[in-house]
Amino acid sequence: MTVRIDRRKFLMGTTALVAAGAAGVMPAWAQASSLRLTFWGGQARADRTYGVTDLYKAAKGTDVEGEFLAWNDYWPKLATQTAGGNAPDIIQMDYRYIVEYAKRNAIAPLDEFVGGVLDLSNFDADQLEGGKVDGKLYGISLGANSVAMLINTAAFEEAGIEAPTNAWTYDDLIAIGEAFKTANIRGGMKAIMDGSYSEPMLDNWLRQRGKALYTAEGKLGFDEADAVEWYAMWAKLREAGVCVPAEDQALDTGPLETTMLVSGKAAMIPSNSNQLVGFQAIVQDKLAMVGYPRIAAGVGGGHYRKPSMFFSVAGSSANKEAAAEFLNFFISDPEAVKVLGVERGIPCIAASRDVVAPTLDEQSQIALNFVANLGDLLGPLPPSPPAAAGEISESLLRTLGQEVGFGAKSPEQAGGELITGANDILGRV
Amino acid sequence: MTARSLESGAPARERAASPSLWSRIWQNHAPGYLFLLPWLIGFFGLTIGPIVTSFYLSFTDFDLLTSPDWVGANNYVRMFTADPKFWASMRVTVIFVIFSVPLKLAFALAVALLLNRGMRGLPLYRALFYLPSLLGASVAIAILWRQIFARDGLVNDFLSVFGIAGPSWISNPQYSLWTIIILAVWQFGSPMIIFLAGLRQIPQDMYEAASLDGAGKWRQFIKITLPLLTPVVFFNAIIQTIEAFKSFTPAFIISGGTGNPINSTLFYTLYLYQEAFGFFRMGYASALAWVLLALVGMFTAFSFLTSKYWVHYDE
């Protein structure tokens, strides 16, 4: 919840304004000389982002005022601002919401600026495609990323267990879990967090089975048998002590600090490749990443390179062209790209990647290499999820996962209720 | 016309009938209303306006981004017929109210009685005991609570002295609501202060007379203190119950806004918040808010109706 203008700056600013007013000189507040930018993320992201806005100010003289919030607080605020016709000019947008915002004209199509102030001639085609809704470009991908299993390498070393590679399977996971149990390090650290209500992990598992969370029509892409098997598998992992008990997992309420990786209760958690940087900033032990486990040796296709997030321009913005110009600077200016690194994902322009690569620290390098070398783990980009996906993940999937975890429901019950509950929510909207 | 009547300098009372009543009121009270204007603007613009709007929205499917469409009583019908989470959150809130309010009042009264014995340094103790009420609704305390009741928290450290290995209270669906009830009871400061003021109102000679008649401390409490304190108990009970129904922050912070685990801390207000700002169902959330208002209103009306049987006023 940090607005970038602190009180002192504000006071100085207003004093200057009053002084200017008194002298009969109104400050030249030309419309395009100031842009508002909003994004979700932590301090690390904010520092990098503001580094770029400072560069932009120096290069073009345009002020970009940034504001950032945590994910959970970001969306209510953005929706409220949008409803009030007061949305910031530049909006960080997620795959989950882009369709909804585009269909309601809350964000503007950018096609008219492409080739003009917005040069996308060398932009990765799949990342460009990801920002389109009904054939029009509504979001510029700020980086490619993939889901990834984050690994506490120090814990693996301490336990004397070999860290997995991209070839690993769910059977390997069980073996690793047993080994962690035997090693009994750090007060009974488990191999992995309880992933039974991790939406990306379920999605990845389903894709390997040739199914999907959602179809292109926005319907459920799996059935009760899949769901029951999913819950049964995690019940087995929980019972065997491979994953953390339900009571510990319930402490994880979303923010990085509450995750099992940071609290030290598990050696691995499912996450995203770009988040390695954020996690490493608050964990002492050295982290690394591999793909999610395969359902059987050699089975791939669960992962995909997705736009980690977009910048969109508000439909209500009076400075759309100026905003598009800033976006162009953000994705292609060599200095800006260096400041940003891969914190938002791997840059989508080859030239930007080349600029970034030599400047990266070890962790960022790992993320870059991981996304570049997914190999047979890589599958096609799924269609953007229906608007209710967030609710299904946050209320239904989580509650059912906990109910199985605490023994309040059997995997069979939970599997059935996941299907009926999700269909109910999808039908409601 | 009225201006002239004032110029004439005649006492207004004698001319009572001549200028219209309203213009006379206006003459006399205009400055008052002028001074009230900022408050009136705030009251109508920021309180009444949104209340009326929310009542309208409760009959729509407003989602913040598109304009609201009228859906009749659908929101209310769904709530009572097809929404298990509504009932789950209602259950959590009612349990919270039923346990936290009496416990808190009993605790507040006990401390007030203790402090009423004219001890040295009373203002200091009073301030100390009031402190939790100031801090209680804060984010910091809710985070502290997470630490105290975690698996490796203070409570379990204490229990381990007796060889008990406690669970993670805060993240176990069997206990999580109770940690929030304890948090509420701990914030006994404001009812305590009011009880203390009430106790000071009780004439000392009543106790003197009672002890001359041979009544013990307990008997004095039952026969004198409690009956004379009932108006204060009544006031505190009403206020605290309304507060309890509205309770939001502790559950929001402790569960990270999720109402976890298994919705065991999904307070009614938290569910309302999720529907409104998590899933953008402003219409449904408005309907939820009105049902809560009706519920609190009904409870308060019931309390007032029954009060004549147990609340003793002096006269």
TrEMBL record, chain A:
SUPFAM superfamilies (UniProt xref): Periplasmic binding protein-like II
Record keywords: ATP-binding, Nucleotide-binding, Periplasm
Cellular component terms per the entry's GO annotation: periplasmic space
TM region(s), chain numbering: none
InterPro entries noted in UniProt: Bact_solute-bd_prot1, SBP, TAT_signal
GO MF annotations in UniProt: ATP binding
Compartments (UniProt record): Periplasm
Domain of life from the UniProt record: Bacteria
Family the UniProt entry places it in: Belongs to the bacterial solute-binding protein 1 family.
Protein name per the record: ABC transporter ATP-binding protein
Species for this entry: Devosia psychrophila
TrEMBL record, chain B:
CC per GO annotation: plasma membrane
One Gene Ontology biological process: transmembrane transport
Localization annotation: Cell membrane
Origin: domain of life: Bacteria
Record key words, sorted: Cell membrane, Membrane, Sugar transport, Transmembrane, Transmembrane helix, Transport
Transport is among the record's keywords: yes
Pfam families assigned: BPD_transp_1 (PF00528)
KW Nucleotidyltransferase (keyword) present: no
Membrane topology of this protein: Multi-pass membrane protein
Segments passing through the bilayer: 33-57, 94-115, 127-148, 175-199, 220-239, 251-273, 285-305
Residue ranges of every copy of the ABC transmembrane type-1 domain listed in the record: 90-303
Residues in the signal sequence: none
Major localization class: membrane
Protein family: Belongs to the binding-protein-dependent transport system permease family.
Name assigned to this protein: ABC transporter permease
Taxonomic source organism: Devosia psychrophila
